[in-house]
Amino acid sequence: MYIERCTYHCLPGRLPALLKRFETATLRLFEKHGFRPVGFFVTEFGPSRPELMYMLKWDSLDQRMAAWTAFRNDPEWHEARIASESDGMLVDMMSNEIMIPTAFSPLK
């Protein structure tokens, strides 16, 4: 099992628009392409506000690559992204990590 942690560092004032895009388009496309979300979070306190962080569960890296490729090539994604950024970009920087659970992790 692999857990992918994705963090989107939003431009000032743009977090609400990013959350709306996730709620109205991204989550549906994630489901369509076989993504398995573990959780979605916004930063309440910390040096990197505002940001959205979410985790995805994958059985293999091949599954991850195939799902992300299909998602990025989906015309619905392109339409949703363009529509959500009609007032300007939402994200300043994005980062992700692929993690594997330790032997003592409750999530395996």
From TrEMBL:
Superkingdom of this protein's organism: Bacteria
Transmembrane domains' residue ranges: none
Gene3D superfamilies: 3.30.70.100
Domain NIPSNAP: 6-106
InterPro entries: Dimeric_a/b-barrel, NIPSNAP
Name of the protein described by the UniProt record: NIPSNAP family protein
Lineage: Bacteria, Pseudomonadati, Pseudomonadota, Betaproteobacteria, Burkholderiales
